[in-house]
Every structure is written in structure tokens, then in C-alpha cells.
Amino acid sequence: MLNIQLDLLTYDWPLFHKCVYLIPATPFPNSFKCFTCDKAKDNYLCNRWAEDKWCPQHTHFCKTVHHFNTQGKSTSVTKKCATREECHAVGCHHRLDSGHMECVSCCDGMICNVEVPTNHTNAVFSVMKSYRKSDACRTASYSITIASALLLLLQLQP
Questions:
Q1: Primary place of residence (predicted)?
Q2: Domains in the chain, start-ordered, CATH in brackets?
Q3: Which residues lie below 8 Å from residue 31, measured CB to CB, with a gap of 6+?
Q4: What is the CA radius of gyration of the chain?
Q5: Which of 12, 26, 82, 130 is a Cys-bridge partner for 31, taking CB atoms 3.0 to 4.6 Å apart?
């Protein structure tokens, strides 16, 4: 068995230099992405040209604002990463200034904002995960754990 392992380690793989290793990297724990666009003409164009980037660490949700006329035709779609505070105004209401309807929805999860809200049944705040601790508390507890481990290691060294 040992000979086989050594042979594998010393074997000159002919295509080894052409291998590409893809490591799924995220910028921080529990990171996520949302479709993002600012005042796109409709949902298709928003999703089609959405920039593929990670949401900032202080955000936890994807927010969608959909404006449409009385015939149901989209006039504007805005999608973004959002904080909990930005998601308090979900639902639909008639905009008196423009005569259009505005529906707002929020969700959590990787690119969860594919669709646009069109009525009160889908213009909601949809939460799948539980958020018991804030990121600040979690970061502080990680920092304390790491600091404690370092102190123990320093004490063990002669």
C-alpha cells in the first residue's frame, strides 16, 4: 500500500499543469448575493444585466421595488441588498404622484429576489433563516475565542 501511495506522489501527471482548481470563496460567513439593479425598465432587464457581486456584511436581505401602471405593465424595477430596517415598508400601495402602483418585497437567501412583487400576496417580507445573534455579537464571540486560544498557546511555550 505504501508503495502505491509513493508511486502516486512521484508520478508525473501529463496534464497536471493544465488543471484549474476552483475554490468556492465567500467574503465572510453567511454571505449571499441578490439581483441588483436601479430603475430597470422591467424584471427581465434587471435580472439579465444584474451585477454579480456579494452583498455587504451589514445587510441580510434582498429588497425589490416594483412600479407598474394600471394595466400591470412594469415601469421600473429596483433590486438591492438591504438591512432589516429597509425592509419594514413591504406591501403594495397606489402612488398618487405618478398614478402607478408600487409593490415592495424582501427575502433572505442566495439570489432570492428573482421575481417581482405584483400584489399583496407576494409583496411580503419572507424570512427563511433565524437571526438570533447580530453579526457584531458573533464577531465579538469569535474574537474572544481566538484571543483565548492564542493566550493558551503563549502560556504553553517555554
A1: membrane
A2: 30-130 (2.10.60.10)
A3: 54, 55, 57
A4: 24
A5: 26
pLDDT per residue as tens digits for the range 101-151? 999 999 999 999 999 999 999 999 999 876 655 555 444 444 455 555 555
Rounded CA separation 60/65 (Å): 17
Per-residue pLDDT band for 30 (boundaries 50, 70, 90) equals confident
Cβ atoms of 148 and 128 closer than 8 Å: no
| Nearest of 24, 4, 75 to residue 46 by alpha carbon | 75
Residue-wise pLDDT for 77-89, tens only, equals 999 999 999 999 9
Q: Is the full-model pTM beyond 0.70?
A: no
Whether 79 and 99 have beta carbons less than 8 Å apart is answered as no
Q: What is the distance between the alpha carbons of residues 36 and 79, in angstroms, rounded to a whole number?
A: 5
- More reliable by pLDDT, 15 or 59: 59
Intra-chain end-to-end CA distance of the chain, in Å: 40
